[in-house]
Amino acid sequence: MLMKNLYLLAFALILFSCDSYQNSENLSNPVHTIETITLLGDTLYSPEIKGGKAFDQFKSAQTTYFNHQNNAEALIWYGRRTAYLGYYQEAIKLFTLGIKNHPNDARFYRHRGHRYISTRQYDKAISDFEKAAQLIDGQPDQIEPDGLPNAKNIPLSTLHGNIWYHLGLVYYLKNDMNDALKAFSKRSVTQKYDDNIVSGGHWLYMINSRLNKIEESNAVINEVHQDMDIIENMSYHQSCLFYKGELKESEIIIDEIALYSLANWYVYEKKDMMKAKEYYQSLLSTGDPYSFAYIVGEADWIRLFEKN
């Protein structure tokens, strides 16, 4: 029934053509709609649009696009700002338009793939990230500007790194650990900051643990230490220190990433499914359903507790 609902949702969304964004001066707000149905069967709707910085940035990006409709950068930011408002289906349509008009620009596949993850369309996400990886092959990397800058206003990621990171994540969601490992390993060559090391290390530790590659999982977290210069990925940092044994469970600051990390650790390190279930339940009852921690926790829950 869930898959049937997802197919009906996809069909309904197709009826809204992305062509409406071209040759138009319609500066209206995004259309309120069903954004997705989660793997747990919850229906997620677009949020109410409120005034504020995010909305102002969206309107600015929208105006810029309609004044420069042939400009790829303008369309990318229009799509990104739309997604930051929580209108992922609208953003997907904008990135689809970008692919139509700029078919060799990997950035549109990268960003559409991200929003396919948000809306639980994992096979489509894999297809987009694989296409993006083909397009960047042999090309120089580039810094990816942050839409939501960190405290130091230092962009920490690159186009290549984000493509491999998200591809690894979606393979992880599909429980394809071998391909997840390949993608995250390729992403590691783009690492420049300590933030990249701890975010990648978090996923690589869990991937290698699932593959029973204990030596490799330990090698990953051995690169993490207490006095790293972390700008924004504090949650990944503390998780890695916990895996390493340098932080006690009682010392962890609880957030969504911590809940997922602890749930996973109890599954693969302690083989304690009851304790793991408690952490998964806490994550899924309190978390943001669009966060990566929630999305992977949801996929794990189905695989671990509902399939048998």
TrEMBL record:
A Pfam family matched in the record: TPR_8
SUPFAM superfamilies tied to this protein: TPR-like
Signal peptide: none
Name under which the protein is recorded: Tetratricopeptide repeat protein
Organism: marine metagenome
The organism's taxonomic lineage, starting at the top: unclassified sequences, metagenomes, ecological metagenomes
